[in-house]
Amino acid sequence: MIKAVKEEIYKFNHQKTPLYGLLTLILLMIYSAVTSNISVINLTSAFGAIEWVPIIIIAVGSAFFSMEYSNHTILLLLAKNRKKSQIYLAKFMVILLYGLALTIFSVIMTFLLNFILKDQKYHWLMIINGKTILMGLGLNILGMLIYLFFVISMSFMLIMLVKNNAVVICIGLFWGFFGASLSTALMKTFSAIISILKWNPLNMIFISQQLSKPVYSKVSQLSSLQLILGITGYSLLFAILGYLLFRQRRA
């Protein structure tokens, strides 16, 4: 298994997609920083990184898997008599590590941008709504890391299902921009079955902010613990479905 992960890391490092993902994150964070004043929301959201990192992971993760089929390198992997479960899990771990790297980078970038653009109005240990700004950032980052398991398993399942990276990226963009509002609209429209609808997968996106702002539970209709349990369940479900589709897919 370790050998499989090392091989996947080697292939991943020799692709341009991860670099494009990093550059996209940098540009988006800089854009967010220079087009709006330094605020608590900007600081605790890492200048929007908690929203952009999952979308970038969907795009990079699906591209990483689809590359094997477009370049026909999947045939080489299968020829080595490696178990498909090892291939799938190794790719999952590589994308998870990439997501962790983007997260760490986004935190460093947040401190750097705040230092460069600082207007002395806010400081990291300032208490807002019962917690420091630094704690708010940490909780949002933790929520995003939990959410990454969800988006990676979903992106792998989608690329196996639709077999088109562009479509998966479009779904990721839609999910990131409209998922929360669509989920809220569904629960308001069909309030009679809200006890069921509140567990819909679109609702899981609230984890990235609800840990630091429990008031969001009034919107998601789920406690933070319930969101974590929901994300865990969906992550396992999508991962299993994605793997089953991968097993059945022909090279």
Question: Can you give keywords for this protein?
Answer:
251 residues; mainly alpha; 2 strands
Largest sheet: 2 strands, antiparallel
User: How confident overall, as mean pLDDT?
Assistant: 87
Global geometry: globular
Strand order in the sheet with the most strands: 1-2
Amino- and carboxy-terminal Cα gap:
22 Å
Low-confidence stretches: none
Structural category: mainly alpha
Beta-strand fraction estimate? under 5%
Q: What's the multimeric state?
A: single chain
Q: Work out the helicity level.
A: over 70%
What is the string of SSEs from the N terminus onward?
Answer: HHHHHHEEHHHHHH
Rg for CA atoms = 19 Å
Annotation, overall tally of beta strands: 2
**Count of runs of 4 or more consecutive helical residues:** 12
Structure characterization notes:
The chain has 251 residues and is mostly helical. Helix content is 75%, strand content 2%. The chain is built from 12 helices and 2 strands. A two-stranded antiparallel ribbon has the order 1-2. A hairpin with a 2-residue loop joins strand 1 and strand 2. Helix 4 runs parallel beside helix 7. The longest helix has 34 residues. It starts with a helix and ends with a helix.
SSE layout and pairing:
Blueprint: H1 2-13, H2 17-34, H3 40-44, H4 49-70, H5 74-79, H6 84-117, E1 127-128, E2 131-132, H7 133-162, H8 165-189, H9 194-197, H10 207-210, H11 217-220, H12 224-248
Antiparallel strand pairs: 1-2
Helix pairs in contact: 1-6, 2-4, 2-6, 4-6, 4-7, 4-8, 6-7, 7-8, 7-12
